[in-house]
Amino acid sequence: AKGRIDELSTQQLRLDQEMEFYKKDPTKAPAYLRRQVEETQQSMVVQKRFIGEQEAEIRRINARFDDELVRLKPLWAAAQTSTQ
Fold first, then answer.
1. Residue 61 in contact with residue 54, Cβ under 8 Å?
2. How many other β-carbons are positioned within 10 Å of the β-carbon of residue 40?
3. From CA 14, how far away is CA 44, in angstroms rounded?
4. d(CA 53, CA 1)
5. For 7-37, what is each residue's pLDDT tens digit?
6. What is the DSSP string of the chain?
7. What span, in angstroms and rounded, lies between the C-alpha atoms of 55 and 43?
8. Fewer Cβ atoms within 10 A, N terminus or C terminus of the chain?
9. Would residue 29 be called left, alpha or beta, if left means φ above 0 and alpha means ψ between -120 and 50 degrees?
10. What is the C-alpha to C-alpha distance for residues 55 and 66, in angstroms, rounded to an integer?
């Protein structure tokens, strides 16, 4: 997703250069160019949302393992003292 964001950023720069000609009145830009700009922006939002969801999933999993570790430490300590 991060690689795709880099690709989209490069594409956005190219489109911004093309849109520079229509800076005073963007509505005069060709429809295909306006559509490409919009699609690039939407794709960027989708990729950022995907990355955010993945990061949230990582945080959720780490929190679950942290909770599990808190419960296991006393059990491990008890098992270690009983074997000695």
1. no
2. 19
3. 15
4. 11
5. 999 999 999 999 998 988 988 999 999 999 9
6. -HHHHHHHHHHHHHHHHHHGGGSS-GGGS-HHHHHHHHHHHHHHHHHHHHHHHHHHHHHHHHHHHHHHHHHHHHHHHHHHHHH-
7. 18
8. C
9. beta
10. 16
Specify the pTM: 0.72
Rg (CA), the chain: 25
Q: What angle do CA 28, 37, 33 make, to 5 degrees?
A: 45
Residue 47 token pair: 């990729």
